Amino acid sequence: MFNLFQKIPSISTKELAEKLNDPITLLDVRNPEEYRKGHIAKAINRPFNKITDYQGKEKELYVICTAGVNSKKAAKILKEKGYDVINVRGGMNQWHGPVKGGK
């Protein structure tokens, strides 16, 4: 079982906007329907209910959801799997940058 009390680093959506110019991996853990309604162009949809199956090759991951709750839970699961994970505080509710619809 993963440690619920481990500290997960987090950044604001404003800080995320600055990071998007770099080659980062951003996982959007909302369900596919929410993702299709509007997501950050660079985001990869990995629904929270399937996060334990994630097997990306990258070491560092940024995780976003609607409000920051599920992304924080997902970050803890991914950290247990050995990834360096950064949670995006406030999630898409706080995102003011451009969004893309569809897949």
Automatic annotation (TrEMBL):
Domain Rhodanese: residue ranges: 20-101
Source organism's superkingdom? Bacteria
Q: Where is the signal peptide?
A: none
Instruction: Tell me what organism the protein belongs to.
Output: Enterococcus xiangfangensis
PROSITE patterns cross-referenced by the UniProt entry: RHODANESE_3
* UniProt xrefs under Pfam families: Rhodanese (PF00581)
- SMART domains from the UniProt entry: RHOD
Q: Which InterPro entries match?
A: GlpE_sulfurtransferase (IPR050229), Rhodanese-like_dom (IPR001763), Rhodanese-like_dom_sf (IPR036873)
Protein name (database record): Rhodanese-like domain-containing protein
